[in-house]
Amino acid sequence: MRLLLICSCYIVVIFSSFARAGGIDLPAISASQQGTSNSNGAEAADAAVLYYNPAGMSYLRGRQLSISGTLLAFRGKVEDRGSTGTPEPFDSSSDEGRQLGPDGVDPYAAGAAGSFWPKILALGSIFYTTQYNDNITLGIGIFSPGGGNINYKSDWSGAYQVDAIALELVNINPSISMRFDDKHSIGFGVSLVGGHLRYSTQLDAKGLQPYLLSKALNNLNANTLTVTPEVQSIINSVCNIKLVINSVCGINVGDVLPGSAIDALSSPLADVVVDPSSTASGLIEMYGYGFGYNAGYMYGFNDRSRLGLSFRSAVEVNLRGQSEWSTERLKARPVIGTTIVSLLNNGGDPDLGNFLSDYLLPDTTTKAIFNIPARVSLSYFNEISDKFDIMFDYTFIKSSVMRELSVGFAVQKDSNGDSVVLSDAKIPLKWRDSYKTSLGLNYHYDSMTTFKTGIQFDKTPIPSKESRHPALPESDRYMISFGFNHKINDNISVDGAYSLLAFADSESEYRNNCRYDRPEGDAGPCTGIGGTFRGKFYDTYANILSLQINSKY
């Protein structure tokens, strides 16, 4: 049988939530770079330059090791502004379902989100470089290009779009640089990017009821589902207010429900079949990897200034995993509900959750391809005096390649040996190209200590409130940083940095147009249940603290 429902297509947004696109970079790869708000890619101060421009390794002498750790304390607020649940099936006149949020009618999506970031997020990096000879330097970096953890409350108004997300990405990046003379050097590296993704959401049990019943009844191969007095009373009620066609109104007790009646009665019958206290949730966990490369060029004007150009390729991360649907809390009402379910279920089991997990929503394997966009960076460094250095960086990100994200589900067999097919869950992103720019300053207090500062602006790739999903409360970002480098001796130094990262207030009016009976545009069938999230994200910021140890030998 063909199933085009339940698993909301919101699940695919998880792949964009922490992608290296536009303003969604992690703000700190290393403390030495964070201190100038990531503007010193051309400075080549330590082994962490491998990430920003591998050609900069040519300016490092001997063997160098940099180990950095970062703590990020995020916090943000969200206000509901009229979110709605799953629209009624077979109704093309409206994309609006029942109202959610504190003023809505659904007790399972009526709470406030409160803080939607974790209090503390930790990450780290390690970079090592060694001179092979006077002209060639080798290096390797292990770092996180993106990742994080967002937690909402399980009963907030967007619970049917996203409950919690956790993503970890690790990049292993061996590199090589070659110095031709005092002015020209190049670098090249390859990347192995590994990822782990965990996403959970609450399922709109009330909104899904008519879809579930309609699909279940239309796949019934028995002629024993007859109209009971309870069903007859519902038919009479809806006929009295002229909500259904006359042919349905002519059905009597003892008649077998035809397909046209099932479509027309799916919504009112669902209230009889499904217990209104029912809840359900979904979990998807995936692992994967992808390959890419990076390259760079560095031009030294003189001993005091240089210009860098670097490129990181797009990376296709192939993810594979498992979907797990918690349907045990979906219960049928006593008598009529359990009777109908027992007729549908092989072996007469009256448990609605068991029926759904077997015939409509089995646990299955999942797959997806997540494209990390390519980027190109231009950076400049200049020692303007013995006391001051200035630097800047401009990075362009080809985030417009993120047009759509999709998750595929493997075909499973039900107890009767029939195929249970869930169409791909799809979401259009329609992102635009984006950029980030930063400006930094070093102040050499003395021969042992340098103080740093910098500012950074990140342009979000999200073009409008209609494209802003609650799993990605992303907007333009502003960062100011302060840092230092202190030499303990000729071989060991320490970097420290603090940054305040602020997000611009933003609005969301994200509508899932994919419906069971009305696929999205001409893209073909898709898994989705509709509904709209409306809200405002505000007072979103992060305090970032990093510490780094550098060793030369």
From TrEMBL:
Keyword annotations from UniProtKB, A to Z: Cell outer membrane, Membrane, Signal, Transmembrane, Transmembrane beta strand
Keyword Ligase attached: no
UniProt membrane topology term: Multi-pass membrane protein
Signal peptide range in chain numbering: 1-21
Region described as Disordered: spans on this chain: 79-104
Database matches in InterPro entries: OMPP1/FadL/TodX
Localization annotation: Cell outer membrane
Main location, first listed in the record: membrane
Entry-linked PANTHER family: OUTER MEMBRANE PROTEIN NMB0088-RELATED
Similarity comment: family membership: Belongs to the OmpP1/FadL family.
Protein name: OmpP1/FadL family transporter
